[in-house]
Model the fold of this input.
Amino acid sequence: MSGTSMDGVDGTVVAIPDDYCGGPLSMLAAEHVDFPVALRTDLMALQSADENEIEREAAAANALARLYAACVERLLAQAAVAPGSVRSIGVHGQTIRHRPDRGFTRQTGNPSLLAELTGIDVIADFRSRDIAAGGQGAPLVPAFHRAVFGASGETRVVVNIGGISNISVLNANGDVIGFDTGPGNVLMDAWIVRNQGDAYDADGSWAASGTVCGELLDSMRNEPFLSLPPPKSTGRDLFNFEWLEGKLAALSPSVIVKPEDVQATLTAFTAITIADSIAQYAEDAGVVYACGGGAYNSELLRRIRLALQQRLSGVRLETTTALGVSPNHVEALAFAWLAHRFCLRQPGNLPSVTGARGGRVLGALYPGY
Done:
């Protein structure tokens, strides 16, 4: 998995029996491979239209495939597993456009090259079939969350805080609601890169040094996407640095915000949009489990916890570590699970989440030989 934050590749080796019916999975190894600076720069540039996009995307896709292959090699060595013992590689690819409103999504990564480099079957392009069936193509992880974290007898919420945040409401009766709530780390990361040169705000310490700007926060909360009912999904197509610059430019002349105040406001914005969504669609939730990179930002978690306590009584906020899964492994596990669903020719989407016309087998096969 390489997500909207564009920090690198997360990989896992998972043993899933064909008769798996839910519950904990057996993870044999996990790895993270950082994106080289040049590749991250190229992928960031592909987020918006520019000259010679086709050739630039193809070059970036090849570089990504080689990075995925390096991750696979490390994983197999760590798990002491031979390539021939692996049924398939589930690879998400890197999203460079997500426009379900126009009937398409684009995840780049050259799965053919990955299959050639590893000799292992590759399952890729998980989102397109759901969009073809009228869905959003995202989020796809709620189906996995239900399988692994559901059936608890209580309503619980899993919030994945990557570049974009999404929630899975796992109702006590088995029903699932899921959707993108808005930005996760994407705006916070963009702002600190621009102002401090750091890739991310480690533990939210820079945000904690600032003061939330009420006018800026109110302006961001007026974004129309936030009031749309699910199913809905979003990405860098909407929440990008240009969006933030527009909000800053519209502030009253008398309002002066320091860079750290903007970071504090962006952190509060992510926290509040998550809490608002949970309060609206999971008012009986007993516990919220956070995963993704944002789960390691203690200032963000503090603000989410505070926002939840203001909206819901008695709800707890923990990380998926409490469920036996490290927050940075959840999404990679999800795409292993989705690849397994493809191998069994079983649906991987939840129409109640994506809005598709029905369950669909997700992905496309690129044989290893």
